[in-house]
User: Which sequence fits this backbone?
């Protein structure tokens, strides 16, 4: 085991040496990006190469579903490649503690970033990832289906935010499971990212004791109640289709009119009109429990730099370029994530002074709660994700959460020292 | 003229090298690596049998052992029997035999990953065409991969859909080696089709059965893609095969040593099962 790793590192080292001598004039900066459509990435990388003629910046894209595991394999080899990779913001601590991400404090100017994005990028007081995008979720609804069913749609106003009970009432009038017609679908229907607010809205905290303890938290009363309600959307109210969890498919169910409501990210604001010409949709704030408080998901993709990179300088230039004012405006035009720079909001007034973005702006500064800060997020997410998928087809939620918490605690043990 | 003694080895070298690189080395890595662990920052630490001791107390691991054994207890006899049955049906020359043989063989040309993606879509509980078919036949919707009681069975079904045709060809080759005279002699002595199968085909097919059974078992113990692509080990651990548990332990739980210990356990189980199977199908002239 150790022998192969060392052998591999030696070969990789030799290869790197050969490369630097062969191409001294040009630095090659390799990146791994989350698998957004190429036409949304290419213009930014091309702009970078134009601004830095001495650097070649080849990149590869890895689909969302595979990215975290693929990065484990690639970074696990502990070679200088890739130089830079897309880092899911809650994984920052995991990469930092395992020496897979370089501290970026002297690369970035903290004052330019939104507070929540900085928090997600910080581990033990240092910046280990560069915020590139953050996120928020909206309730999308199909105007035509609401009209047909004679249901009054929710208002695009945070003071008239729907409760979950209102969503269920409307959903029941809009759904007809026998005809595969549904009231509601959640974009990432098995991801803690989107589903943690069910418990957080009722006062729950998923992990306690410095993010290293799930037992007593994840299986506490708030999450049991919140996730039991989530289960009933599928098993009892029957307004959501169980087992449809692929986030490549869920927006299509809404786009094609199979479901009347959809809770999803801001990126859909652009893709829906482009992909479904006939879709007439409106947006409203994320629902909440009447007995709790509004909570919305947040956090998104950052960049991290491989600490073994042999192109530190070029990597720093890349990070600065990708978080520059101009590039962030360009990025917003390519794929409308919630901005991480304070300047972006001011530079695009005509965009942000619209109903959807007025809601989002309120959410990110008032209701957004990040995923738990833990070095064991990879393990936490994977184990909870399986449970969130399983509970859609029934089962005792309290028991499922207790078992999950036990498994998580076992895996978190290694971070206690 | 006699060739020097090293010549046969030269011819064997490529195959031996392959065996060494792709079989012996990984086995060595997993045997040794199972005794070590990796710290969070990548340093290797000696753990002795600590990984195995942890596995013994790990309920998830025992669930995976149980699921893996159950899976193999069903899928291997099923595939071998079905492959033999199809081979018997398509052994005799006939009008459409070529067509049927091709039809049975075609699924193997689809990679296991693609098979998984394909059937995952076909059997999707929300939008799968199979559900539409069930609806049309007035059969209630089935959860398939999403149902705790059905998931493992559904994986067995799709793996067999792909695998049976492949093993059928080995059975056909085995059938072709049985001398025609044996059947003719038996027929003259008044043996019917059933008796001919029971007393001639089956005994003379023992070596083929031995090969197919053992190769199929090894392949099925290592089955991974459908679990990774479709079920992620769920629902509730119902499809958590050991191979997937080993993968998840390394790349989600970030514990290389424990993962290699699981790999070693798989290796030992396969070796034991193969030993039992050898005894079961032993012939006088075969090992």
Assistant:
């Amino acid at each position: 085991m150790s022998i192969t790793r060392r052998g591999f590192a030696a070969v990789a080292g030799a290869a790197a040496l050969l490369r630097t001598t062969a191409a001294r004039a040009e630095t090659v900066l390799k990146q791994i990006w989350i698998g957004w459509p190429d036409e949304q990435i290419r213009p930014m990388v091309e702009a970078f190469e134009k601004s830095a003629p001495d650097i070649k910046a080849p990149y590869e894209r890895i689909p969302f579903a595979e990215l975290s595991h693929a990065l484990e394999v690639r970074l696990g080899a502990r070679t200088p490649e890739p130089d830079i990779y897309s880092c899911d913001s809650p994984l920052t601590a995991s990469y930092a503690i395992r020496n897979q991400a370089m501290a970026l404090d002297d690369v970035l100017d903290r004052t330019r970033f939104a507070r929540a994005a900085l928090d997600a990028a910080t581990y033990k007081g240092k910046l280990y990832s560069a915020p590139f995008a953050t996120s928020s979720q909206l309730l999308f609804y199909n105007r035509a289906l609401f009209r047909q069913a004679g249901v009054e749609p929710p208002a695009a106003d945070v003071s008239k935010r729907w409760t979950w009970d209102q969503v269920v009432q409307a959903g029941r009038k809009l759904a007809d499971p026998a005809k595969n017609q549904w009231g509601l679908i959640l974009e990432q229907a098995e991801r803690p990212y989107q589903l943690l607010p069910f418990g957080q809205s009722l006062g729950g905290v998923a992990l306690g004791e410095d993010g290293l303890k799930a037992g007593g938290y994840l299986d506490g009363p708030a999450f049991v109640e919140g996730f039991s309600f989530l289960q009933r959307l599928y098993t009892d109210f029957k307004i959501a289709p169980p087992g449809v969890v692929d986030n490549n498919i869920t927006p299509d169910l809404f786009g094609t009119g199979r479901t009347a409501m959809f809770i999803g990210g801001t990126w859909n604001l652009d893709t829906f009109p482009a992909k479904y010409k006939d879709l007439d949709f409106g947006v409203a704030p994320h629902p909440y429990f009447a007995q709790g408080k509004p909570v919305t998901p947040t956090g998104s993709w950052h960049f991290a730099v491989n600490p073994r990179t042999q192109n530190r300088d070029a990597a720093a230039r890349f990070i600065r370029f990708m978080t520059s004012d101009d590039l962030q405006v360009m990025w917003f035009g390519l794929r409308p994530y919630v901005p991480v720079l304070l300047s972006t909001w001011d530079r695009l007034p005509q965009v942000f002074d619209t109903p959807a973005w007025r809601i989002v702006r309120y959410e990110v500064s008032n209701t957004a709660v990040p995923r738990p800060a833990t070095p064991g997020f990879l393990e936490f997410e994977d184990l909870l994700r399986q449970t969130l998928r399983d509970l859609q087809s029934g089962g005792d939620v309290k028991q499922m959460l207790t078992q999950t918490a036990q498994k998580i605690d076992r895996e978190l043990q290694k971070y206690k020292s | 003229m006699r060739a020097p003694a090293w010549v046969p080895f030269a011819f064997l070298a490529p195959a031996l090298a392959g065996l060494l690189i792709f079989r012996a080395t990984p086995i060595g890595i997993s045997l040794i690596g199972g005794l070590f662990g990796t710290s969070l920052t990548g340093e290797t630490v000696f753990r002795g049998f600590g990984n195995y001791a942890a596995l013994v107390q790990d309920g998830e691991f025992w669930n995976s052992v149980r699921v893996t054994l159950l899976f193999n207890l069903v899928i291997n006899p099923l595939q071998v029997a079905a492959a033999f049955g199809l081979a018997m049906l398509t052994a005799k020359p006939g009008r459409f035999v070529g067509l049927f043989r091709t039809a049975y063989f075609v699924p193997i040309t689809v990679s296991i990953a693609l098979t998984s993606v394909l059937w995952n879509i076909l059997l999707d509980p929300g939008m799968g065409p199979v559900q539409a078919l069930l609806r049309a036949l007035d059969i209630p919707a089935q959860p398939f991969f999403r149902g705790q009681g059905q998931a493992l069975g559904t994986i067995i079904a799709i793996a067999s859909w792909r695998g049976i045709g492949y093993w059928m060809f080995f059975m056909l080759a085995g059938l072709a080696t049985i001398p025609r005279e044996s059947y003719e002699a038996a027929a003259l002595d008044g043996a019917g089709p059933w008796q001919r199968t029971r007393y001639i085909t089956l005994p003379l097919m023992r070596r083929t059965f031995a090969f197919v059974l053992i190769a199929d078992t090894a392949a099925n113990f290592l089955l991974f893609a459908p679990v990774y692509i479709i079920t992620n080990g769920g629902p509730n651990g119902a499809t958590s095969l050991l191979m997937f548990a080993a993968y998840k332990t390394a790349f989600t739980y970030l514990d290389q040593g424990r993962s290699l210990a699981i790999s070693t356990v798989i290796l030992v189980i396969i070796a034991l099962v193969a030993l039992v199977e050898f005894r079961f199908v032993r012939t006088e002239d075969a090992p």
